[in-house]
From TrEMBL:
Keywords (A to Z) from UniProt: Signal
Species name: Meganyctiphanes norvegica (Northern krill)
Protein's UniProt name: Protein quiver
Domain of life assignment: Eukaryota
Length: 186
């Protein structure tokens, strides 16, 4: 029996024990924060939603006891934000007009839907769901697409085609794949 430790036997120092414990605590904290973030982002707001709203023409108009400004002048300022306490969806509209030599697209931010935040009432009436609906009419040449989204200010210029929640899940999956999941250590 040798008095010295062999090179193949790991020698654990206080520093390496601290580093291992610190790393696992850091990983646990990351996962706790990400879990809280995902839960927060996927919950529907109970008190309503904030949506962007603008008008097609070049003049401001009074609507809902407030001025609504032209989409052409949109500058991300608060004057374009509409508070929608009784709604849970914002609306975005894209109108396509085919002319002889080109196609013109006009985008609008139409504020919020008349939906209610009361889920039972929402289910009874069968109001619109999150996603996009295309309208093609034989009587009206322009086709239009209405998109509905469910998080604050989601109807900005070109809303995403996938739920905002997915954007919270993607980084989580990346971190799990990169660092792995380390459960609590005893």
């Amino acid at each position: 029996m040798s008095l010295f430790k062999s090179k193949s036997t790991p020698f654990i120092t206080e520093k390496s024990r601290y580093t291992t414990h610190y790393t696992s605590m850091k990983t646990e904290n990351i996962f706790q924060i990400l879990l809280i973030l995902i839960i927060y982002l996927t919950l529907q707001p109970a008190e309503g939603i904030n949506c962007y709203e603008c008008v097609h023409n070049n003049q401001r108009v009074k609507r809902h006891n407030r001025y609504v400004y032209p989409c052409a002048e949109f500058d991300n300022s608060d004057k374009y934000i509409m508070k929608c306490p009784d709604s849970k969806l914002c609306v975005y509209q894209k109108i396509n007009l085919s002319l002889a030599d080109k196609q013109i697209s006009v985008s609008t931010m139409d504020g919020c839907t008349p939906n209610t935040t009361n889920q039972q009432r929402y289910d009874e009436v069968g109001l619109v769901q999150e996603g996009c609906i295309r309208h093609n009419s034989a009587y009206k040449p322009p086709s239009s697409e209405y998109c509905y989204c469910s998080y604050n200010l989601c109807n900005h210029a070109a809303p995403p085609n996938i739920s905002f929640s997915i954007w919270a899940i993607i980084p989580t999956m990346y971190l799990i794949a990169r660092y792995g999941f380390q459960g609590p250590h005893s």
